[in-house]
Write a structure and sequence with these properties.
Blueprint: H1 6-24, E1 33-34, E2 52-56, E3 61-64, E4 73-77, H2 84-92, H3 94-102, E5 106-111, H4 115-124, E6 131-133, H5 138-142, E7 146-148, H6 151-159, H7 164-168, E8 174-176, E9 179-183, E10 189-194, H8 204-215
Parallel strand pairs: 1-7, 4-5, 5-6
Antiparallel strand pairs: 2-3, 2-6, 4-9, 7-8, 9-10
């Protein structure tokens, strides 16, 4: 028996198993899309944020380049205007919005809803939020929070009048896991909250405390992704 070859066999097996696991956690090998909410792999604290270029409700463009930021930013990913848990969270964060903007943060909310749907959402909430359309889910993919909604859930949603394709204008069948990223003016993620359980959201108190704490951190050199 050639014992010298045995460790390499174990390494090869381990590498193959890792690749199979990663493939199982993504949709048909598509980069940035998890097979389900529990399998998302979001960007972590210390990593550089992803660049985004998205349409706002009024048709304007919102762009964030982590390598050239003039102010810190907070990005909140939510499922859509059709989601009652998202609506409730909007209402809870109304007071927090004033607090974090006073700290100098840009605050934006990102969902798969097309711009026309964003207008409807703004008419239903009593807050001057900046809502952005990520219909193609490119921002959600870049931040690692996009996942595929299974067919059973899609059918259940349709039965109660929720049509994700109509809301986004796309038939990709994707949603973001509700998430919040606090990004320093150096483009580095200082805090993130990502919970696959869409019924559980970050509290207003924790949100404001995390935003204040992030401002006190020294500039960081981004970790490699």
């Amino acid at each position: 028996m050639n014992f010298n070859s045995r460790p390499w066999s174990l390494i090869t097996f381990s590498a193959a198993a890792t690749l199979l696991l990663l493939a199982a956690c993504t949709r048909d090998g598509e980069t940035g899309v998890a097979a389900n909410a529990d399998a998302v792999r979001p960007l972590l604290i210390g990593q550089a944020a992803a660049a985004i270029d998205l349409a706002a409700a009024d048709g304007s463009r919102y762009r964030m380049d982590p390598s050239n930021m003039s102010a810190p930013a907070i990005i909140v990913f939510y499922r859509g205007g059709w989601c009652p848990y998202c609506a409730a969270h909007f209402m809870e964060l109304r007071n927090a919005e004033d607090a974090v903007r006073a700290m100098g943060y840009e605050l934006v909310f990102v969902s798969p809803d097309r711009p026309e749907k964003l207008v409807e959402s703004l008419s239903q909430i009593d807050a001057a939020y900046t809502l952005l359309s990520d219909s193609d889910m490119e921002a959600a993919k870049a931040f690692g929070v996009a996942f595929e909604v299974d067919e059973t859930t899609l059918n259940r949603y349709r039965e109660i009048g929720i049509d994700l394709a109509a809301s986004s204008g796309r038939d990709h069948g994707l949603l973001p896991v509700p998430a919040l990223f606090i990004i320093g003016s150096d483009g580095v993620i200082r805090f993130q909250y990502v919970n696959p359980n869409y019924k559980v959201r970050i509290s207003e108190a924790l949100f404001v405390a995390a935003a204040a704490a992030a401002l006190e951190q020294k500039p960081l050199k981004p970790l490699k992704k």
